[in-house]
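--- STAGE predict ---
source: upstream dedup step, 1 unique chain passed
mode: sequence only
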Amino acid sequence: MQIGIPKETLAGETRVAATPETVKKLVAAKHQVLVERGAGTRARFRDSDYEQAGASLTDAAGALASALVLKVRRPDAAELGRMQASTVLLGMLDPFDAEGLKSLADAGLTAFALEAAPRTTRAQSLDVLSSQANLAGYKAVLLASHYYGRIFPMMMTAAGTLKAARVVVLGAGVAGLQAIATARRLGAVVEASDVRPAAREQVESLGGKFIDVPYETDEEREIAQGVGGYARPMPAAWMTRQAALVAERCKQADIVITTALIPGRPAPVLIQPETVAAMKPGSVVVDLAVERGGNCPLSVPGEVIEHEGVTLVGLTNLPALLATDASALYARNLLDFLKLVIDAEGRFAPPADDDIVKACLVCQDGKVLRSA
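--- STAGE serialize ---
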């Protein structure tokens, strides 16, 4: 197949959908790869690196006119206008945005949104959410350390002892667990909260202390199990108890990192403004859910602000701040997905009965196949 790799046009998006490493493998499989000039520059991949891997350099029109297009973000209107109706598109396409899916269907594309892949063992190698969230959790701690005016580890000196920073992580999914691990490596004392009881063992295995909110009913316990590896909205009574306990922990914390997201829904509010007001001067809140409304109502997307002495970090798209590694992982995710939809002869032949392929296929033949 002819595979196109265009440069991402979304503001602040530094990642690229293919690296010289994955291009070399695609070329070895007899595919023709067209890379837009400068597509990998912001991720520190040179055009010459792609040429040495076997790709041909082209302009945006050439890359988007390919039979198969690999992208990081959903194409905008200008990009869609350059794509053919028969094009196969792979990327992070936001499968919960009904209007966005309709634009892909109206363009006649066959589109696969990799965020929709099931959380199963078989799908781990192409789980774009996990690969990118891992990096986001790591970067969140580094941002916190940057804006926090003190050190993370306990330090004993001749001039006295400095106490270790107290970090609270809300949400122990992939990003949260990486944040816990990174904060612990830097020497912080870490506590974490999550609605899923299974998260306790993972948090404790990384050296964190689990903030336990007991379940009072069987309904609460059942909902807390989640579905397909994702959390579900908890009953109001449990959320009230959790909010009170979390608020107390946050008031004692030096750094709070929030990572709680539920697919297709606004981010749950975990830190109220009055909690922020009660935090110690110099404390830092890093809100990884800010693009979905934020786990703290005070967070501002794309900005770092101060509220009553507390710094709130609302920077978005943290994986793009680690563009080289984020692109490397993402490109490998795409490569593993391609193995499911391209046959031994190199033709596009998606199996109709494959659970991963069916879950990711969001539009085909001018129709949206997924209810957002």
